[in-house]
Amino acid sequence: MSASWTDFLTTGWEQFEVALWNDGVLNNWTHFWRFWLSHGFIEKISKKSRNDNLSPNEDTLWRECYSFSERENRAFVITANEAKSLAAKIGTELSIETDPIWNLYIKVEWGSERTHMVGSHLDSVENGGKYDGPAGVAAWLEILQQVLHHKKEWTLQNSFCLTVFRSEESWPHNGVACLGSAVATWNISSDKLEQIVYKNENWIPVSLKDHLESSLRRYFEAVEIDARCERREMLWWEWDDYIDHEWWYFFCEEQGISKENYSDGIWWEKISDSLLSPKISRKNTASYHELHIEQGTIIENAEVDWKQVQLWIVSWWIWWAKRYKTTQAIWVESEELSAWDYEVYSFEVLWFSDHTWSTPNNPELENSEYRRDANIATNLFLKEFLEQDFGNLVSSEVNYEPWNKNPEWFTKVPFHQNISLAINKDKRNEFESFYAQYIQELQKSTKTQFTSLSYTQAFWKIRAVSRDSAISTVSTLLWISKSASQEFQRQKQEDQVEKQFGTTRATLTNVCLSSQGLDFSLDVREVDADDVGILTDKISTQLQDIIPEGLSGLNKVSEKIHQKIDKSLRDRAKKVADILWYTTIFLPSVPGHDADRIAAAGIPIGMIFVRQENGVSHNPWEKMRKRDYNIACHTMMKAVLANMV
To answer: Where does a domain end: 525, 560, 595?
Structure first.
């Protein structure tokens, strides 16, 4: 090739841009510019990753592709077959490998051992949407298609690899986020791996080792049904059975695992040994790119020079996160109320769930410019209710998702809270009038929805939280949320460009307050070490009203430090977007991804976010317009290629 990044460094971008266009790098490497392959792949992954014979829809259900499940196996088989099909159609070669933790590596080699890597994941949270993970893999399949198409025409400096990571969304199941990429880069110890407790699809805890061994055993039992275990002889299975077992066949062949040796634990030794010689390292990987749907509303709300922003290029850091949880219910003072004097009313507060990491905190709690937080709306109501002295709080408890009965965990802005109140009968009419008027104001400001009051007959005693204890607890919970909003405002004033949407996230989830005590989880996120220290100190002080030990009285579930984005990769993506006339913003990434595990291994990383309608993530209502996705694919295809020449 006549154009190279050496030319760029010596002649400047303008001349280099002309050379790239003349060589066809930025002009011709988009033969399939409408990205039909991507959109078809996303639909295929969504529909084939269920095992309940139900068709996904945007109202009730979508993917069941949990990490380390047969549904995740299906998604990996579909991806591998898609890559093989591309190579066969184009008439060229690629290699497909796996590693002991089951990550998938699809490689196109040009002699150099150093590889430019792209990647994402295919697993999902419970009943997740279509795009979180698969959109990134689909985009890289498009780039793979271009690389294969031009393999005989071009001589590139480095090889290309599409990596599909296992178990990125693994936190609710095994307590370790991004497990696949952590193992692939030696960012987890063998002792930690041994201690992981996995929760299967029925939420039964079992060690990760036992869970994987059980999956292997089921595979070999299925193969034993018929002695013909060659892949070509598996076709007697139904499609669902076949695709489940095809992955195991490929994996066992690749890793030398057989019916005779799997029970001896050799496969687990391979996983432990792989930590000592990671598949991804600075020696063999020159760079890593990741494309992901946005998990919030930042792109949607951003403008540059009066133009709607189309892409978010991650600028400098990927998150610093601390997660806390109550080890046991925090004591609250309670009292018994007579059913003769009090009656119980209930209602619900709800909204679609956003992702905690990318959805900015509210500048003011009473104005949900960004977050629509059912728990904050609930506590604002309870604060006013208790001050009016209509009665007592019986309970305020998180509601579970109706399709899977599992908690909201750390990743979701609270979206469904159940409230029960003990109302003094003498104040019933006054309370009902207050409820009708006040929730209209609250719904308008917080953008959440309050349901109608329902009455429950109490026959003897009503156990409720004492009024003073309820006021203290609710005020503390509100102050925790308020502190993040204050940090948000401070950052916007200090830096209107990099921090125009703030980098602070502090979210209370799984809040359950009743006479039995208070339980909650706390997710604190920042991209700046000093800022996260300031925020946690504030929260710890505020918590002392209900927990004398402050944050130290909670269980620190996990902590991850931030990782740095490579400036040169970031700037290349920006330059390409400018050439293509796409409007971009530079912001850090508060969410964590496989990319931050790659960065922790010392490998340069670049990342881009695609606009998502309404910012709804990690649930069936994820929406992504084809035009927005195509713009991101177009930009990253050319940026990755420019990085390889």
So the answer is: 560
Stretch 255-265: mean pLDDT: 78
| Beta-bridge mates of residue 578 | none
Q: Which amino acid is at 405?
A: K
Q: Do 344 and 312 reside in the same domain of the chain?
A: no
For 225-233, what is the mean pLDDT? 50
Mean pLDDT within 200-204: 70
C-alpha distances in Å from residue 44, one per residue of 65, 136, 142: 12, 14, 15
> What's the mean pLDDT when you consider all of the chain?
81
CATH number for 72: 3.40.630.10
Question: Per DSSP, what are the bridge partners of residue 348?
Answer: 418
Structure tokens at 520: 């909650």
pLDDT above 70: percentage of residues in the chain: 83
Residue 239 pLDDT > 60: no
Residue 232 confidence (pLDDT): 45
The answer to whether residue 535 is domain-embedded is: yes
Q: Are residues 75 and 219 in the same domain?
A: yes
| Structural domain contains residue 10 | no
Number of domains in the chain: 2
Residue 593's domain spans which residues? 31-319+562-644
Residue 107 pLDDT > 90, yes or no?
A: yes
> What does the DSSP assignment read for 512-578?
EEETTEEEEEEEEEES-HHHHHHHHHHHHHHHTTT-TTGGGGSEEEEEE--EEPPHHHHHHHHHHHH
Closest CA to 176 of 272, 71, 67, 273: 67
Q: Is 4 part of any domain?
A: no
